[in-house]
Amino acid sequence: MSEYFLGVDGGQSSTTAVIGDVHGKIVGWASAGPCNHVAAAEARTKFLRVMRECISQAELRAGIGTHHFKAACFGMSGGPADKAALLHELIDAEHWMITHDAAIALAGATSGEPGIVVISGTGSIAFAQNGRGETARAGGWGYVFGDEGSGFDIVRQALRAVLREHEGWGGRTALTPALLEAAQAPDADQLLHIFYTPDWPRQRIADLAKVVNRIAEDGDPVAIGVLHNAARELGMLAASVRRQLWAEGESPQVAWVGGVFHSSILLERFHTVVSLEENTICKPPKHGPAVGALLLAYRAAGIRDVRIPMPENFRAKL
């Protein structure tokens, strides 16, 4: 019987499962909805449903009809502690690794090598591991007390600029009509109150970072300033974990992951900020978090030298 390995990225916006064979070849993959919260009974039900759907679809693509794997790694947004028992209900595996989403993002970004990954989507965090296996993090404290440079934070800062204009102590900005139109709000006061309603969860608000980027690309100085400030804060997260794990003169690689980095304005400034640190190598991620989870599944089974070639249509699907 062939041996298969499973990697799963369970995130705030989507869930991705990837299955590889004993040679490192990806044979199946699938995506489904978010699965990051399990506190309430209905959330646990949703978590299990999304996970089952995602893994089953990946198995179907792989042409395997089993929930048994040689090794499985799950990287979970919000941490693994409250999800471990539920995951053991879903599949059978000889080797398990249940970790956080930053760990699999780093493994994918550097193809399992030491380095730093800065993640910015709905939230933000920097995570790093050096050659001695020591790890460090900065950020990731949630939208109330942290998530600097995230999609949610970008929209929060843009809204503050809109409110300053509304109250007469801030400059004019094209963010005002753009955000009012995007939220179908009549004025800035109503826009603020709309964002407090259940109709606008954090992820939906964070998606409006695309609007901020569009206005910045049109040349609005306030919007550009919001993106530049986000890039600076994300660069500071990278610098923090670097100082914790690498000595002066060492050359860690820094990669980035997450939808916020689709903004060329933000990415260019982030690259500049990170490169100000001497001997820092800033480069795009080699693989996504789901492939990172698959790499860690191989390592959980004691296989460290696997190389994962990407199927021709894999990137287009995930």
Molecular structure report:
The chain is an alpha/beta fold and 318 residues long. It folds into two domains: 4-111 and 286-317, ATPase, nucleotide binding domain (Nucleotidyltransferase, domain 5, 2-Layer Sandwich), CATH 3.30.420; 112-285, ATPase, nucleotide binding domain (Nucleotidyltransferase, domain 5, 2-Layer Sandwich). The chain contains 13 helices and ten strands. It has helices spanning 41-62, 84-90, 101-109, 142-145, 151-167, 175-183, 188-195, 202-207, 209-217, 221-245, 264-275, 289-300, 314-317, and strands spanning 4-10, 15-21, 26-32, 68-76, 92-100, 115-120, 124-129, 135-139, 253-257, 281-282. The strands form two sheets. The chain has a five-stranded mixed β-sheet. Helix 9 crosses helix 10 and helix 10 (221-245) packs parallel to helix 11. The longest helix has 25 residues, at 221-245. The radius of gyration is 21 Å and the shape is globular. 45% of the residues are buried. The mean pLDDT is 88.
Observed structural traits:
Nucleotidyltransferase, domain 5, five-stranded mixed beta sheet, 10 strands, globular, 318 residues, 2 domains, alpha/beta
Give the rounded overall mean pLDDT.
88
Query: Uncertain segments of ≥5 residues (pLDDT<50)?
Result: none
Beta fraction:
15-25%
Q: In CATH terms, what is the fold-level topology of the largest domain?
A: Nucleotidyltransferase, domain 5
Proportion of residues in helical segments: 40-55%
Q: The biggest beta sheet, please? A: 5 strands, mixed
Give the SSE order as H and E letters. EEEHEHEHEEEHHHHHHHEHEHH
Specify the CATH class of the largest domain: Alpha Beta
Strand order of the largest sheet: 3-2-1-4-5
Helix segment count? Answer: 13
Query: Terminal Cα separation, in Å?
Result: 28 Å
Report Rg.
21 Å
Count of discrete domains: 2
Say which CATH homologous superfamily of the largest domain is assigned. Answer: ATPase, nucleotide binding domain
Overall 3D shape: globular
Task: Find the structural class using helix and strand composition.
Answer: alpha/beta
